Each structure stands twice: as structure tokens, then as C-alpha cells.
Amino acid sequence: MEESELIIIGGGIIGLALAYKLLCSKKCSSLLVLEKEKEVGSHQSSHNSGVLHAGLYYSPGSLKAKLAVEGIRQMVSFCKENGITYEICGKLVVATEERELSELYRLKKQGEDNGLSGLRILEPQEIKKIEPYARGLAAILVPEEGIVDYLQVCRQLAAKIETMKGRILKAMPVTAIERKGKFWEIKTMGQNFLTPNLINCAGLQSDRICKMAMGSCPVRIVPFRGEYFELKQQRNYLVRNLIYPVPDHRFPFLGVHLTRMINGKVEAGPNAVLSFAREGYEQGSFNWSDTVDSLFYPGLWNFLKRYPIAAWEEWKRSANKTLFCQAVQRLVPEIKENDLVKGAVGIRAQALFPDGRLVSDFLFVKEEGILHLLNAPSPGATASLAIADEIIKTLEL
């Protein structure tokens, strides 16, 4: 049985960022990352639109607000130092109806309270100068936001970890975890490991890892499928950078938006509907275990009771391309239904409490010798390096 001073379960961007920061700090001499897939960053870390989130949407004083603001600055520095392609292109959050204007001004103040710089309210003619085809009564310009390829970031983090004598074992799914005195025994399909310090960064599987180790978990990961369309290449000129709607307070997600990605493609989306597979990126993906976990969890049904109208609207947009296009046209009216072709799919690992409340902030659960990161959806990738610092501080290593 192999022994390591510290083991991280999960080779997504947060697990890798944590391993990298721990090795840079020289706080542990032997470190191991266990990743169940054949490659790092295989799930949420690479199945996203690659936005660098500056921290506009998150409640002042929350971990999301603090770590997004710090995280984007660290991420940009990391990309600069390591030759990773990124761009600070700015974003518009556009109010298309009168009822959204008060929320727009509230968002601006919230962003300023969180420490964002350069936020401005734009009039319609100013919107046109930045996004000529966008329509709105007013917008917030968020100049610090940008785009990056997070899979490139994951690969660079992995390379640095291995250069610093950390180890990443791939295709190594964890099957059981047992307490052995002051140590944790981690069983995998291949071999077993022993460590006094275990950190769970397993993303979509984090609640299951928590339950393996502790016998229970205070939340359940309920996967939401985010479906994107892409603009046909000849219509990409309709979107220069990032165009977002004012978030609908009836639903906890950001709504359909338009994103120019670092590869030059323009994505429209996502919607947010229940996924019947935690890692199901193909149309019609289905996993019995994942489906039973969701459908027999009271938190899901309580969530649907809290947000019935918005959940219904999301499902309709998923089933009907015309309705999806109408949501896009609120921001850019010239986009037509035949401009949109099927694009990528992402799965958001959203933690739910049993009473149906979404876990709104990053969630750490710590006990002796173990720490679980149980909720780290967007802006988790942007904030990953800052989340790593927070975990190290929490562990008091």
C-alpha cells in the first residue's frame, strides 16, 4: 500500500490548482492527485464557455465574491506567465425591459462593493459602439471580464505539478474510503493508498466521495444540463465579445447569453435543465444511478416547488429551438433561428439542500484530516487558484 502525506481526489481545475499551490508553498513533501478519467480536466473544467468571471453577480462578503475577484487576477497572471492564450475583452450585461433597470443599477453597486473596477452604465447609443447588433435600454460595461481555454490551464497546471515532483495518477477511480486510526485508506480499481490528509475536489462526484468517507453528506449534487448553440461562422460578426442578460431573480442561473470563445466561435446559451446523467454530454444520455439519485432526493422536488415557472421555461427552451432563439433575440435581434447550430453541452454540479435551496456559495466541509469541496460551480474555474489558497488556509497547513 502506497503512503502519501496528502491526497487530492479529483484532477479538475480546482484539484490541480490546489496541488500546484501546495507544492509551490512547500507545505507538503509528498502529494498525490487521483483522477478517475484518462485525462485531467475532463468534466466541468473543460465543458464550459471559458469565461473569466470578474465577480459581478455574487453577494458582497460571500466566498464567491471574494474568490472570483482575487481569482481572476491570479488566473490572468498565471496565463501571462505560462503563455496561455487569454483575452480581457469586457462584457455587457444588457437590460432589454424597463423592469430590469433597477436590477441593473443594483448589480453595478454590488460589483463595486465586491471590488470590481471600471464598471459603467451605458446608454443605448453607447451599447451600439461596443456591440453594434445588441439591443438594450441600458447596460453595464464590465471591462475586467475575459475569455480563456480552461483545458489549457489544466494541462499547464498538471505539467507544473509533475515538474515539482507531485504525482497525478489518471484512470484511478476511487471505490471506497475507510478511516484507519489517524489515516485514510483510499481504495481504487488499481491499488490502495494511505494518507493522514485527504481533500475531496471531485466536482460532479463530490457528494459520493463525501458519503464514502463520512457515511453521509449534507447536500446532494443534482446535475443541470447546459445546452449551447453556436452561431454559424458567417454570422459571428453579430457578437464581438460577451453579451449577457440581466439575471432573472426568479431563477438562480444567469440566463441565455452570447459568448465569443477564445477559439473564435460564438456560443449562445446555456439553458439549465435536469440531466439524467452526471457526465452525460451526448443527446439522450442516461444513467440509472444518477437518475435515481436525483429523482428520489427530496431536495430536487422542493427546488421545483420553489421555482416552478422558471423551471418550466427552461425545459421549454430546451425542447423548442424557436423559443431558445427568441431568448437570444432579446439581446441581438438580428440572430435568426437558422443561424444557430447545435453546440457543446456542459453539466453543472449544483449542490442542493434537502429543503430545495441551492447552495449559493462555495461550500467546504471539514473534519479531522479531511476536507470536502461540495459546491464549486461557476465561477469555480476562474476562482480556482484563489479557492486553492482558501483551502490551504482552512486546513491550516
TrEMBL record:
SUPFAM superfamilies: FAD/NAD(P)-binding domain
GO molecular function: (S)-2-hydroxyglutarate dehydrogenase activity
Gene3D superfamilies, per database record: D-Amino Acid Oxidase, subunit A, domain 2, FAD/NAD(P)-binding domain
Cofactor: FAD
Keywords: FAD, Flavoprotein, Oxidoreductase
Pfam families: DAO (PF01266)
Domain FAD dependent oxidoreductase: residue ranges: 6-391
Gene Ontology cellular component list: cytoplasm
Record-stated family: Belongs to the L2HGDH family.
PANTHER family reported in the protein's UniProt record: L-2-HYDROXYGLUTARATE DEHYDROGENASE, MITOCHONDRIAL (PTHR43104:SF2)
UniProt-listed NCBIfam families: PRK11728.1 (NF008726)
Protein name: Hydroxyglutarate oxidase
